[in-house]
Amino acid sequence: MAQEVRGVVAPGRNEPVRVETILVPDPGPGEAVVKVQACGVCHTDLHYKQGGISDDYPFLLGHEAAGVVESVGEGVTEVAPGDFVVLNWRAVCGRCRACLRGRPWYCFDTHNARQRMTLADGTELSPALGIGAFAEKTLVAAGQCTKVDPSVSPAVAGLLGCGVMAGIGAAINTGGVGRGDSVAVIGCGGVGDAAIAGANLAGAARIIAVDIDDRKLETARTMGATHTVNSKESDPVEAIRELTGGFGADVVIEAVGRPETYRQAFYARDLAGTVVLVGVPTPEMKLELPLLDVFGRGGSLKSSWYGDCLPSRDFPMLVDLHLQGRLPLEKFVTETIELTDVEAAFERMHHGDVLRSVVVL
Ligand code: APR
Ligand code: ZN
Ligand code: ZN
After folding, report:
1. Would the CB of 228 count as within 6 Å of ligand 1?
2. Ligand 1 in contact with 194 (CB < 6 A)?
3. Residues in domain Enoyl reductase (ER) (predicted)?
4. Is the CB of 256 within 6 Å of ligand 1?
5. Is the ipTM above a cut-off of 0.90?
6. Running DSSP on this structure, what letter comes out for residue 237?
7. Residue 224: CB within 6 Å of ligand 1?
8. Among candidate residues 273, 318, 266, 271, the one with its CA nearest the CA of residue 288
9. Does the beta carbon of 349 lie inside 6 Å of ligand 1?
10. Nearest atom (ligand 1) to Cα of 264
């Protein structure tokens, strides 16, 4: 029997989101119904609303969530009713070429939530990023649920489901930051700050935060940045070189997604360093570089998707580190809000006023 719950729906391109009654069916084979306890507001939800991702309206928004498994379908062994879980948007198949080569974060055949939830009139909903968790309950693939220590606050745990994982993973998984490394992070929003926290966790000796907004640089310090550079006031490439003995950083993380910051990241690394690209550019953006510079600089240039994370490995570990006081995830929760506040939260996010607004249910 389908259950009626409230959910935040984007009805059409650029239309304001609405809280609607939605129908959540019983879990089928391989599925789970999760009672959502918290779900963060991410830029990607806004992009769905604006039409930047797909035209498959209506969308059920929300994808940075934690909650308790209510029921599971046939054959589910990963989780059981009552488990406290963080949801992920890459339930890997375990069988494709990427999975078999040991790089499941590139899985070609992710098994995320299917389109089974509907509006009260039967209209099919598209769950954002295969989750749809701005809702009292949601139906997901069991592989999207990862059990973590239930003593963590749901608002904090949910953040690991997207932006915070992307940033921490960019530093520790993609960038491979190690003890004593110098790290520069360009762009200190939620993702960049998480990269700073990740670099700090990994034992980086110097963490240089770069942004155009002094308020962001102040917050970056509380996340573990040891130096800050306002790139409106000084050339960040020069500043990073100066702060690293003239060499450039061992790992540079770009968390903006613009041509000029991609360029800065490219030139701010040590010759043997690594550039990690997390910021997502738009399709029309281009970057021109002298080929001799591309050839002449060693090291590597990597992009990081979802922090190259393995949810079953990374989510419980990061929750444990947080509970031990070694990873200040609570600092990412700027405010807790209700389902009806999502539209207003988009506005605040757009103005750069918050790291994360988190819907708490
Ligand atoms: N140089 C340095 N920093 C900049 C610049 C610039 N030219 N332009 C913007 N910024 C800073 C902003 O001041 C802000 O602090 O980049 C930060 C971007 O942060 P948010 O808008 O909060 O975005 P966030 O959620 O952190 O995501 C950053 O990562 O995963 C991707 O899609 C995401 O592309 C986005 C990026
Ligand atoms: Zn796969
Ligand atoms: Zn997201």
Report:
1. no
2. no
3. 12-361
4. yes
5. yes
6. H
7. no
8. 266
9. no
10. 1
**Given the structure tokens 């209506």, which residue do they identify?**
58
Question: Which residue has the least CA distance to atom 19 on ligand 1?
Answer: 189
What are the DSSP E strand ranges found in the chain?
3-10, 18-24, 31-40, 59-60, 64-72, 84-87, 118-119, 126-127, 137-141, 145-147, 182-186, 206-211, 227-230, 249-254, 269-277, 300-303, 335-337, 357-360
Atom 20 in ligand 1: which residue has the minimum CA distance?
189
pLDDT in tens, the chain (361 residues): 899 999 999 999 999 999 999 999 999 999 999 999 999 999 999 999 999 899 999 999 999 999 999 999 999 999 999 999 999 999 999 999 999 999 999 998 888 878 899 999 999 999 999 999 999 999 999 999 999 999 999 999 999 999 999 999 999 999 999 999 999 999 999 999 999 999 999 999 999 999 999 999 999 999 999 999 999 999 999 999 999 999 999 999 999 999 999 999 999 999 999 999 999 998 899 999 999 999 988 899 999 999 999 999 999 999 999 999 999 999 999 999 999 999 999 999 988 889 999 999 9
Which residue bears the tokens 């990597």?
Answer: 302
